[in-house]
Amino acid sequence: SSIQAAPMLHKRFVGQGTFYSVGLGACGNTNNDNELVAALNAPQFGTPANPNNSPFCGRKVLINGPNGSVTCTIVDRCEACKDGDLDLSPTAFAKISPLSAGRFIMHPVIVVTGASRGIGRAVAEICLKTFNANVLAIARTESALNTLKAYAEKELNTNERVETVVGDVTEERVIDDAVDKCLKRWGRIDGLVINAGVLEPMATIADVNVGEWRRLLDVNLLSAVTLLKKTIPHLRSTKGRVIAVSSGASMKAIHSWSAYCVSKSALNMLIRCLALEEPDIVAVAIRPGVVDTDMQFLVRTGGSKVMDEQDHSKFVGLHTSNQLLSPEEPAHVIAALVVGGAKKEYSGGYYTWNIEEFAEFMRKKIPSPQASTVESGE
After folding, report:
1. What is the model's pLDDT at position 159?
2. 20 is catalytic
3. How do strand 68-77 and strand 60-65 relate by DSSP bridges?
4. What integer pLDDT is reported at residue 68 of this predicted model?
5. 252 has catalytic annotation
6. Does the active-site annotation cover 346?
7. Cα–Cα distance measured from residue 57 to residue 47, given in angstroms and rounded to the nearest whole number
8. Domains located in the chain, CATH noted
């Protein structure tokens, strides 16, 4: 029957053709047909199996997209999981897909580190809800990861597309556990969002505790190396994507931030080296701008004693003038890049989140002069 056959389409990969498999919602969800929950790029499967066996077949639906709307016919649909196969021309697909130039599969498997709050949490939620991805979330705070599962249950009527690992990314066993869970649950890994990071110690080089310096490097840099080493074989096979959350501090020295600045600069170079060594993996470093997160709170409250007064006042001023970005703004771009939007020609680069090339991935267009002119500490 159609209900039995349709889920097999989830395993198909990108190709060229007339028929496109488009996710209309998560399993058990009853999203409106007018909403394109997951924009998927041309998985070819030829003539659809068992057409007209589903009560949805032949139904006309209007799909809205960033470049216009198209009316299309459902040629096959799984009643159980609400994924449908639509008869679309390439031109029609380009109109409805915000990522028509990207590589997409039905439910990409994305690993997000530092997923309990801030940018990491926002990326995980957007990957789940907007891009219909499966997400493996890593964080130290179990309660925060439980709320991510609750979010999926509420928004998607299922938490089957979320796996979590509680632990410190500096511990190899935590990374091993994450990889094992991905492979056992979904059989693949399609992308990484390297987001885990800390700012402290904030101190001059003359005064800093070297042990704290080493700890920061373990979190901000070496955990990324471990994660990459464990996942590269799987990312090769899926031609996956790696998005590292960098910082404007990787390019500009900030007084008393030496450990953080060095770690983010090294992270940029790690991405460049990965892109050079692994041509089948697209690797990108993203500067997210100055974002309203716990790290910025730490800068405002703890930085006054050690930072340059002008630098500290600048960060405080962005907060008091309500110019800090919400985590969701850069997170939407990061999520779009990791699930398929990052093009091959971007690989190895360091980019600010709101450059013109990423405009199609933005949640909404907002005036954010600070995102392109202020050297960020995040």
Report:
1. 82
2. no
3. antiparallel
4. 58
5. no
6. no
7. 14
8. 2-96 (no CATH), 109-373 (3.40.50.720)
What pTM value is reported for the model? 0.74
Lowest-confidence segment of 80-89, 228-237, 351-360 by average pLDDT: 80-89
pLDDT in tens, 59-112: 555 554 555 566 655 554 444 444 445 555 545 555 555 444 333 455 789 999
- Average pLDDT of span 202-212: 98
- Bond from prior residue into 369 cis (ω within 30 degrees of 0): no
Look at the block and give the residue holding tokens 């993996």.
281
Which H, E and C letters describe the chain, residue by residue?
Answer: CHHHHHHHHHHCCECCCCEEEEECCCCCCCCCCCCCCCCCCCECCCCCCCCCCCCCCCCEEEEEECCEEEEEEEEEECCCCCEEEEECCHHHHHHHCCCCCCCCCCCCEEEEECCCCHHHHHHHHHHHHCCCCEEEEEECCHHHHHHHHHHHHHHHCCCCCEEEEECCCCCHHHHHHHHHHHHHHHCCCCEEEECCCCCCCCECCCCCCHHHHHHHHHHHHHHHHHHHHHHHHHHHHHCCEEEEECCHHHCCCCCCEHHHHHHHHHHHHHHHHHHHHCCCCEEEEEECCCECCHHHHHHHHHCCCCCCHHHHHHHHHHHHCCCCECCHHHHHHHHHHHHHHCCHHHCCCEEECCCHHHHHHCCCCCCCHHHHHCCCCC
Per-residue pLDDT, 96: 52
The predicted pLDDT at position 131 comes to: 82
Average pLDDT rounded to a whole number, residues 9-13: 24
User: Of 82, 129, 260, 368, which residue is the catalytic one?
Assistant: 260
Catalytic pick among 54, 246, 256, 347:
246
Contact yes or no for 213/264 (Cβ under 8 A): no
Q: pLDDT tens across 31-72, in order?
A: 332 223 233 222 322 233 334 444 445 555 555 455 556 665
Q: Packing angle between helix 118-129 and helix 328-336, nearest 10 degrees?
A: 50
Active-site residue, selected from the candidate residues 223, 264, 346, 376: 264
